[in-house]
Amino acid sequence: MIVPHLPHYYLYPSEGPGVAITSIVFNGKNYDLWQQAIRTALRSKNKLGFIDGTLRRLELKEGDDPTEYNAWEMVNPMICS
Hints:
81 residues; mainly alpha; 0% strand
C-alpha cells in the first residue's frame, strides 16, 4: 500500500522483518553507538517517526477514510520487528 503524499508509509522491497538496517550490533555496552546507528538508518528511510513518537497511530472514526490508518497499521509492526 502506498499513500503518495505520506512517504513514511512506503515500504521498499528491501524493508522487512529480519533485514539488518545497520551493521552495529547492540551488545549491552554500546547503546549510544547502536542508538545513533539505528536512528540514522530509520531517518534515511523516512521511518524515524514510528519510534520517536512524532508519527502516531490515528484514531479511526466512523466515516473516516481508513487509508492512512491502514498504512500505519501495516508499516508500524515492520518497524518494531
